[in-house]
Amino acid sequence: MAATAAAAATAAAHTGRVFFFDIDNCLYPSSCGIMLAMGQRIHAYFQRMGFPDEEASELHRKYYTTYGLAVRGLVKHHDVDPIAYDKEVDQSIPLHEYISKDAELRDMLANMKDVKKWAFTNAYKVHANRVLGALGVEDQFAGMTFCDYAIKDFKCKPQEEIYHIAMKAAGVTDPKLCYFVDDSADNVDTAKRLGWTAVHVVGDNGKKGGSKHGDYQISNVKELPSVLPQFWT
């Protein structure tokens, strides 16, 4: 992995460009069921805290909408330990039942030219690394920016602060050199507002023409070469 990361950094040095990749529902299709399984575990977590079914659903929706992640609401309002929460929710998902090594995705990433590839996720690092490993692409990224649950007031997309954190970590200062792909319209909107070139993955059931978010819209991350061919030629 170190050799691959070093090669990626060397190639990117010629252009300074960094391509930020979301992970969940982006590197794999939303139809695989991971997010459904995660949502069920989050709902069960609320219920174990004592919230009845309807209130658990409402709080889950409210916190996700307000803070970008349900766990941020739990931390802010219920003094939940996010790392313990992550072990019980994200880390409990048997990923092998939902995703497997993806040779086509790996080839697409491996064939990118003159750009540093950087994972940029709202997950904690443990879940993110598990997903990258399950897909067989963990060695394709020079680094990762994740929601750091060890920090009390941790940041997450679509907050602008974490985009700046990602830029600093990836070693880029000019937003014009930043490229981004994500399935969340809100996350894409923030990237676009900051001057990044943004691509919205509308998902399996979405219509590319129905999304007005970002500079480009695709149904699947593997369509990236069709909208940004300069990274593969």
From TrEMBL:
Q: Name one GO molecular function term.
A: nucleotidase activity
A GO BP entry is:
pyrimidine nucleobase metabolic process
The record's Pfam families line, in alphabetical order, gives: Hydrolase
What InterPro entries does this protein map onto?
HAD-like_sf, HAD-SF_hydro_IA, HAD_sf, Pyr-5-nucltdase, SSM1_domain
Protein name (database record) = Pyrimidine 5-nucleotidase
The organism's lineage is:
Eukaryota, Fungi, Fungi incertae sedis, Chytridiomycota, Chytridiomycota incertae sedis
